[in-house]
Design brief:
By secondary structure, the protein is α/β, with parallel strands linked by helices. It is built from 14 helices and 17 strands. The protein folds into two domains: about 190 residues, NAD(P)-binding Rossmann-like Domain (Rossmann fold, 3-Layer(aba) Sandwich); about 200 residues, Dihydrodipicolinate Reductase, domain 2 (2-Layer Sandwich). It has a nine-stranded mixed sheet. A six-stranded parallel sheet has the order 4-3-2-5-6-7, with helices on both faces. The two termini are about 35 Å apart.
Length: about 425
């Protein structure tokens, strides 16, 4: 695995110098698209559980796809992913990754992107997403980007610009915010947008669950390797769970509000139960109020603590009706309940089906703006809970705070864990 030190400024410069040419079967900026019988070559960056799932769904989405390149920070993760995919009887024969196209280290994403692929699946820790999206778009590749797409304001600005360039190049950018590709949720949102609730004024959303995985440090791991393998608990990699997990709930709120962005947010949060060094420095609970110009407010709660009441749901109140989003019900004059008809499919599969269908049709989907703004909404909430301040949307978007270390190297022996934020004392940057 590579341990070469990478300066972020130089890396970004390298990305933007990358070729803007497309693979032989990708959509061209002129609108030419792959013939129906053409093979679309797929590359995977990030071979964890979600990345492996995305590769499986990409191969199931289009029978003329092949997985030809994979990249991850660590070889054990890469080999485990390949073994799982090759062992799948439905898609295993189309996993055609040679040893020469297995890449590890910080620069693995560059090698995947430059390996002759047409579509890149980006599923590494979110802190790397902006540079990976930039590089893929600069090289003319279609992109599937897992959520969130950034962990700080500068990252969001980079992604917005890359996705603007993707539109100019007629490249697909599909988001891993999968509820937008779920048929029942689409039916709920259609009715909300058509006025079934009247004027939305109160949106209450919960993502209250137990603790997630944690990997104990091994004696041979450097600080950098430990943080990368335990990435969830470091804000420079995950954004904190208000960003990495609760973004699904916040995205549904923005969707219901027709992708209106909040004006500002304030809230509270802390680290009450997960207090050992094993859990890095992130919080274990956040409660945020988001204010909107329309007068609507989103009341947002997320918690990762064992032994507590759990609830993952969204409750929307309007001037004439109420919606329980996860139960797909509306009460009021336009009362309605979604009835399954057998046409529903897994939402993770649906997003890949629509991605590849859009490429084949020469009408590539571009989710760039809304996926980035939903990421920023989640980041805004973390900024509010970490600082204890009321933070505006413009402050968050224009923030100069870059969470990642200035240099990245696997052999970094000393990479201090950031201090736990103290609301009222931690400054906004």
């Amino acid at each position: 695995m590579s341990s070469r030190r990478i300066n972020k400024t130089d890396a970004r410069r390298d990305f933007l110098k990358a070729s803007a040419g497309l693979g032989a079967f990708s959509i061209l900026s002129s609108g030419v698209h792959a013939a129906s019988a053409s093979t679309l070559k797929v590359g995977l960056v990030g071979c964890g559980g979600r990345g492996t799932g995305a590769a499986s769904q990409a191969l199931r989405a289009d029978k003329e796809t092949e997985l030809v390149a994979v990249g991850d920070m660590f070889d054990d993760r890469l080999q485990g992913s390949l073994a799982q995919l090759k062992g799948d009887g439905e898609i295993g024969a189309r996993v055609k990754v040679s040893p020469e196209n297995c890449f590890t280290g910080f620069d693995a994403y560059k090698k995947v992107i430059n390996s002759g692929v047409d579509v890149v699946l980006l599923a590494s820790p979110p802190g790397f997403r902006p540079m990976h999206i930039e590089a893929a778009v600069a090289a003319g590749k279609h992109v599937f980007a897992e959520k969130p797409v950034a962990v700080d304001g500068p990252g969001c600005r980079r992604v917005l610009e890359a996705c603007r360039q993707a539109k100019e190049k007629n490249l697909a950018v599909v988001s891993g915010l999968c509820w937008r590709y779920d048929k029942p949720k689409r039916e709920v949102m259609k009715r909300i947008h058509d006025g079934a609730l009247g004027e939305l004024h109160t949106l209450h959303t919960n993502y209250n669950v137990g603790s997630l995985w944690m990997r104990k440090r091994q004696p041979n791991w450097t600080d950098m390797e430990y943080q990368l393998r335990n990435w969830y608990y470091y804000a420079w990699l995950s954004g904190d769970h208000n960003v990495e997990q609760h973004i699904h709930s916040l995205d549904k709120c923005r969707w219901a509000l027709k992708d209106e962005n909040p004006v500002a947010a304030y809230g509270l949060g802390g680290r009450q139960v997960r207090t050992s060094a094993d859990f890095g420095h992130i919080f274990d609970h956040h409660a945020v109020v988001y204010e909107f110009k329309s007068g609507a407010k989103v009341f947002s709660y997320t918690r990762q603590q064992d032994g507590c009441y759990n609830d993952v749901n969204d409750y929307f109140q309007g001037s004439k009706g109420y919606c329980n989003v996860m139960k797909h019900t509306i009460t009021g004059p336009d009362a309605w309940t979604y009835r399954r008809d057998g046409s529903e499919i897994d939402m993770y599969q649906s997003e890949h089906n629509e991605l590849f269908a859009s490429i084949r049709a020469g009408k590539p989907i571009n989710d760039g703006e809304w996926m980035t703004h939903s990421s920023l909404m989640a980041i805004l909430g973390r900024m509010a809970t970490y600082t204890g301040k009321r933070i505006t949307w413009e402050q968050a978007l224009n923030s100069k705070e870059v969470l990642a270390p200035a240099d990245l190297a696997l052999n970094d022996q000393k990479l201090p864990t950031p201090p736990v934020a103290l609301p009222g004392k931690t400054p906004f940057a």
